[in-house]
Write a structure and sequence with these properties.
mainly beta; Maltoporin, Chain A; Immunoglobulin-like; globular; 5 helices; 3 domains; five-stranded mixed β-sheet
Length: 850
């Protein structure tokens, strides 16, 4: 009996221990490195049990991954990454499992940047915020994108309140540039608001557009696109009497592969040719009545880019690239109130040399360097040289009075060092966003311009102002900008990470040496499964003047380029009693002695939730305060209350550029990304926001130079509601439907008297007691669609030759989206729109991939 009880007790104990061991779980953690020992970030790591995938995660910036709550047993870890050989590592999960180190083997040629449609998951990495916009090549090719302009298509997701004085910050392969000299087929990924508080960049993430381009592969691959659009397939513009005979043809593509039989040298050749035979719609009013015309405004655009990459060793690679871009245009500036004779022609081109080097010194140290050297030429001239006639918000005739040449020789440098150790991933470096020698030859308005408040004043030959310029108009100057940063991404625990950064900016001319910008961000998950992540951050971001105001400062010094403003002149001759231009005081541009760089304080808090394996939802509150923003002020304006006598008669308009504006913005943003049921994937974003300010930018003037109380109002770009969607639906392997939806509330505009009531030569004065931007235009709604079909021309299906035919419809519902509402009380178009966004346009695309 005792022996039987003892055996029964042992059996029960063994069974309980076995059951307990089967219920025990343990984490699997590790690091992915390349053959040199350098960590590999953004790699999809899949945990499998037998042939079944259990879970997938992506490595963080330090190459680390982690699976929580894994039951004990035998598993395998699979890694499939372009540029590396497939990796399958067996793992036996026990009570205590040491961190793994998985070393990937190189393929014949390493592709430095790889973006795949992998699993979309929330993460406690501070750089993996799910309220960002992330569109890879697969999504961009399946949704309707007008003229394959990916940057313009995704710009709708930018936050206008986060843009700098020069618009959105454009970043290609980690380096800030002024223009996107990259063709569509060479783009691998476009991102907005990735890591919004990164110290690496000068501007906030919600004002950045990051482009990652393709790298060459070990085999020959290519893409060729032909896009065609003709007016016979379009709807008529609502302001045109007849449908404009337009046509657009685009030939674009890229091809890459090894150079000869080399296993270490590869190339990527890309380019496009765009022939744009478009029409501008004139909608104006003259003394004889309405003026309606369709005016040809052709453009040509040619871009070619050659990229050569070389793998010196397993830890050292580099590439060289040359870009050449020509984009002349003809009869531009015509439309709305501007008549055909007031158009311009332009001759513009850019050339760039780029060198990029990537060196892994050890498993912990990585050095990345890039230098860009460029040449630019921008020339614009009037079609005719006749004096210009401007009747406010009625018509503009005569010549355009534009004769401007801008040249630029510039260099951009970026040097970044990464160091990884334990829980720290540190990046530091410096950049030269712009080091340029710029030349300007400005002979604008040498033939004079007359300004009339209304058609009645024009009929009575009573202009309110006359302006003319004289002098050499030629200046050379240097634009210099520097930046440096340090950032530590610290993994406090598996469910908490912090990012601490500090950036310093400097630019010449302003001599502001106090531009220290601290940044902080965190990501925390209260759950072991980490399906919910709380995320927040704050930071200071400085703005820049840009090159344009610096050119104005040097040109309009009273000597180099004399600009004369004569108020209430006679017509057609402004000179009374035999006077001449030198007898009138010239205009001058100057900086406020206390001017300094504007900055904004950005902050946010939000929550992210994993709804499904490949679907995430992010809800984020964003706030910002803009301090010391740029604006202009005429400090020699006629004095109140009569506004007749100026303080200094020896000077005309004394434009002082100040940093005295302010802006406040608050928004709530909802972002849904990933795959939805029934083969639908993409992203959608809704934003509820309000932005108020008292400046419209560095060239903006208030209505009354001595009373700014009425200028605080809704920002010019403010829209209460904004909704953007890019989704693709694939019911079969070769058939895809793409949708693009943009909807937004109306933007504000100002009610003005139309007259120069303050004697400044400006007609932005408002009736007494009426604040700026007190009126609102209509809402905007646009639905775009794409229907595409893939034809596989080889047995390899997706991996072989593929021919794609696509049919796009932009503004499918042909909804009239009015724009350019007139707030001038003296205009015959008061409270009316004088133009609209394009009506329905159809586009045919043929793509061949091999």
């Amino acid at each position: 009996m005792r022996r039987s009880c003892l055996l029964l007790f042992c059996f029960i104990a063994w069974f309980c221990a076995l059951a307990q061991s089967q219920n025990r779980t343990a984490p699997i953690a590790g690091t992915v490195v390349d053959p040199s020992g350098a960590t590999v970030a953004d790699v999809t790591v899949t945990l499998k049990r037998g042939a079944k995938a259990i879970s997938s995660v992506k490595t963080d910036a330090s190459g680390r991954f982690r699976f929580e709550g894994i039951a004990q047993g035998n598993y395998s870890i699979e890694i499939l990454q372009e540029g590396f050989q497939p990796s399958l590592t067996p793992v036996q999960v026990q009570e205590k499992l040491a961190p793994l180190t998985i070393t990937l083997s190189l393929a014949e040629l390493v592709s430095q940047v790889s973006v795949t449609a992998g699993v979309v998951q929330v993460s406690t990495d501070t750089a993996e915020n799910r309220d960002s916009v992330d569109a890879d090549q697969a999504l961009l090719e399946n949704v309707p994108v007008f003229d394959q302009d990916y940057v313009a298509a995704l710009s709708a997701f930018l936050d206008a309140g986060s843009l700098g004085n020069n618009g959105p910050q454009l970043i290609i392969n980690g380096v800030e540039v002024t223009s996107a000299t990259v063709t569509a087929s060479a783009i691998q990924q476009v991102r907005i608001n990735q890591n919004p508080y990164s110290a690496e960049f000068a501007r906030p993430g919600r004002g950045n557009i990051e482009i990652i381009t393709k790298e060459a592969t070990s085999d020959y691959h290519g893409t060729l696109n032909f896009i065609f659009r003709d007016a016979v397939m379009n709807a008529r513009d609502p302001f045109a009497l007849v449908r404009a005979p337009e046509q657009r043809r685009i030939l674009e593509g890229a091809i890459s592969g090894p150079v000869g039989h080399s296993k270490t040298t590869s190339f990527l050749l890309s380019g496009h040719r765009q022939e744009e035979d478009l029409q501008s719609i004139v909608f104006a009013e003259g003394l004889s009545g309405p003026i309606r015309e369709n005016v040809p405004s052709p453009k040509r655009d040619t871009l070619i880019s050659l990229h050569i990459g070389h793998q010196f060793s397993s830890n050292h690679s580099a590439y060289w690239q040359y870009n050449e871009w020509d984009y002349p245009s003809f009869n531009q500036g015509v439309g709305n109130f501007v008549l055909p004779q007031a158009g311009t022609n332009s001759d513009q081109w850019e050339r760039e040399w780029i060198f990029n080097d990537r060196l892994t010194l050890s498993p912990k140290w990585l050095i990345q360097s890039q230098i860009l050297i460029g040449w630019e030429h921008h020339g614009t001239s009037s079609i005719t040289n006749a004096p210009k006639i401007v009747v406010q918000d009625s018509f503009t005739s005569g010549g355009a009075q534009i004769d401007l040449l801008g040249t630029e020789r510039h260099a951009t440098l970026n040097e970044m060092v990464s160091w990884s150790s334990g829980k720290h991933f540190v990046k530091f470096g410096f950049s030269v966003p712009d080091w340029s020698r710029r030349g300007i030859v400005n002979h604008n308005n040498f033939g004079s311009t007359y300004f009339f408040s209304s058609l009645q004043d024009y009929a009575a030959q009573h202009p309110y102002a006359f302006r003319q310029q004289a002098g050499s108009g030629q200046v050379l100057y240097w634009q210099q900008e520097l930046g440096g940063f340090v950032q530590d991404d610290y993994r406090v625990s598996p469910n908490l990470s912090l990012s601490l950064g500090l950036r310093y900016n400097w630019q010449n001319h302003l001599h502001d040496r106090h531009q220290f910008a601290p940044r902080i961000a965190f990501a925390y998950s209260p759950q072991r499964s980490r399906k919910t992540v709380f995320r927040g951050g704050a930071g200071i971001f400085y703005d820049r003047t840009g090159a344009g105001p610096l050119g104005d400062l040097l040109l309009y010094n009273g000597l180099t380029l004399q600009s004369y403003l004569i108020k209430n002149p006679t017509y057609p001759s402004p000179f009374i009693n035999g006077g001449s231009l030198p007898n009138f005081p010239p205009d001058v541009v100057q900086f406020d002695p206390s001017i300094h760089e504007p900055y904004s304080i950005q902050y946010s808090i939000g929550v992210e939730r994993q709804l499904a394996k490949q679907t995430t939802l992010a809800i984020t509150y964003n706030g910002s305060v803009g301090i010391s923003l740029f604006r202009s002020l005429d400090i020699n304006a006629p004095l109140p209350p009569d506004y007749l006598v100026v303080p200094d008669p020896s000077v005309g308009v004394l434009r002082q550029i100040e940093s005295s504006g302010r802006q406040i913005s608050n928004s709530l943003q909802v972002t849904l990304r990933g795959q939805l049921p029934h083969h639908v994937s993409g992203l959608m974003q809704y934003t509820l926001s309000r932005t108020d300010n008292n400046t419209g930018g560095i060239t903006w003037f208030p209505a009354n130079q001595y009373d700014l109380s009425g200028e605080w109002s809704r920002a010019d770009f403010d829209q209460k509601h904004r909704f953007n969607l890019l989704e693709s639906y694939s019911p079969g392997k070769s058939f895809t439907i793409g949708l693009g939806v943009t909807a937004a509330s109306g933007k504000p505009y100002s009610l003005t008297t139309g007259g120069d009531i303050y004697g400044t030569g400006l007609t932005n004065g408002r009736p007494a007691g009426v604040p700026r931007n007190s009126l609102e235009g209509p809402a905007y709604v646009d639905l775009d669609s794409r229907l595409s079909r893939d034809f596989f021309l080889s047995r390899k299906k997706e991996k072989g030759n593929v021919l794609t035919l696509a049919f796009d419809a932009f503004n499918l519902l042909n909804h009239v989206n009015y724009v350019a509402y007139v707030g001038n009380l003296q205009s015959p178009f008061f409270a009316q729109a004088v133009s609209a966004f394009p009506a329905r346009r159809l586009q045919i695309t043929t793509r061949f991939k091999f």
